[in-house]
Amino acid sequence: MGASRIIIIAVSAVAAIGIALIVHNIAVRPAAPHQAMAAAPAAIKPMTQVLVAKRDLPIGTRLAGGDIGWQAWPADSLNAAFITDGRAAQAAPATTGDAIARKASYVANQAAAAVTGGPMEALYGAIVRVPLVANEPIVQSKLVRGGEGGYMAIVVQKGMRAISIPVTTATGAGGFILPGDHVDVLQSHQGEAPAGGGRAPFITSTLMRNVRVLAIDQASQAAKNAQSMIGTVATLEVASADVEVLARAKAQGEVILALRAYSDAAGSPTRGVEEESQGANGTVRVVRAGKTTDETVSQ
Questions:
Q1: Contact 276/191 with Cβ under 8 angstroms?
Q2: pLDDT digits (tens, 9 = 90+) for 69-89
Q3: Spacing of C-alpha 262 from chain mean position
Q4: How many other β-carbons are positioned within 10 Å of the β-carbon of residue 36?
Q5: What is the pTM (predicted TM-score) of this model?
Q6: Distance of CA 200 to CAs 190, 196, 249, Å?
Q7: Could you write out the three-class secondary structure of the chain?
Q8: How far is CA 16 from CA 9, 13, 262, in A?
Q9: For residues 84 and 75, what is the distance between their CA atoms, to the nearest angstrom?
Q10: Neighbours of 159 (CB within 10 A)
Q11: pLDDT of residue 184
Q12: Torsion-angle region of residue 46: left (phi > 0), alpha (psi -120 to 50) or beta?
C-alpha cells in the first residue's frame, strides 16, 4: 500500500476518533430531571448497510458512481443475496450524539474504501440484467459482467444486431479503435470493365456510418488507461435490416473501419454511399436505401 493511501486512512481514523470523543463527552452529561422521568424508548432494531440502487436503473445500464450506494437496512429482514459493507449489524442511533458518532465512523470507512476498494467499487462497469427501482437492494443475479454468459445480448440495444468482421492493424485504424468507439465501415473493390473496353473502375463503398463497436476479439472493455487494442475481430452493432449489408461485404472482400471523432459520434447508424471512381463514361454509382443507381457527373 502506498504512503498516500496510508496517510488518507490514518487521517480518516483520527478524525472519526476525535468526533467520537466529543460526542461521548456530550452524551455523559447529566440529563435534566424532566428527561430522566421520560418513558424508556422502544427497543431499537439492529441495522446494517445494504447496497441499493440510488435511482431507477433500466436494462442495459452500465453501473457507475452515483448509480448505487449504501442504505441502512434492518438486520432481521436481511436477505442472504443482499450485498453488505461487511460490518456487523449495529443498533440504530438512540440519540443525536449516537447519530453523529455513527456518521463519523461511516465517513472513515468510506474514505478507506475509496482508497483500497470495496464491494461497491467492484460492481462499477457491470450491466443491469433486470430493471432495478430506486432504493431496491442490489443482488448479483440482476447484474452481468464482461465474460459472463448473456453479457453481449444485454449490451445490444433493442432492434439492433451484433455482427463481427475480421480486422487487422491496417484495416482497423492501427489498433486505436476501442470498444465503445464509433466507426464508418468501408470497402474497396474493382468493378466490371466497361462494355466498350477499357480499365475496370475501382469502387469505394461506405457501407455504414456511425456504427458502435461492441468488442475487439472477446474484450468488451479496454484495459485501464489503454490507448489501443490489437485484435483480429471487431463486433459491431447495426440495425437488423443492415446485417445483410455487412454480411455481403464480408463475402466480397476486405472491410475497412474508419474511426470517428468522439464529437462526431452522436445519432444512430445509417447506411453509406457507394462511389465509383470516374471513368470514361463520367458516372458515379450511388447506393441509397439499398438501391444502386448510376448518375452522370459533369467533367
A1: yes
A2: 999 998 888 888 899 887 765
A3: 16
A4: 8
A5: 0.55
A6: 7, 11, 19
A7: CCHHHHHHHHHHHHHHHHHHHHHHHHHCCCCCHHHHCCCCCCCCCEEEEEEEECCCECCCCECCECCEEEEEEEHHHCCCCCCECCCCCEECCCCHHHHHHHHHHHHHHHHHHHHHCCCCHHHCCCEECCCECCCCECCHHHEECCCCCCHHHHHCCCCEEEEEEECCCCCCHHHCCCCCCEEEEEEEEECCCCCCCCCCCEEEEEEEEEEEEEEECCECCCCCCCCCCCCCEEEEEEEHHHHHHHHHHHHHCCEEEEECCHHHCCCCCEECCEEECCCCCCEEEEEECCEEEEEECCC
A8: 11, 5, 44
A9: 11
A10: 8
A11: 94
A12: beta
- Using CA atoms, how far apart are residues 20 and 136, in angstroms rounded to an integer? 31
| Residue type for position 22 | I
With contact defined as beta carbons under 8 Å apart, do 272 and 207 qualify?
A: yes
Q: Which three cell numbers stand for residue 152?
A: 453481449
Smallest Cα–Cα separation from 190: which of 174, 177, 203?
203
What percentage of the chain has pLDDT greater than the value 70?
Answer: 65
242-276 core/surface letters (b: 16 or more CB in 10 A; e: else):
beebbeebeeeebbbbebbeeeeeeeebebbebeb
CA distances from 219 to 75, 151, 213, 231 (A): 39, 11, 11, 9
Give the β-pairing of 160-166 and 143-144. unpaired
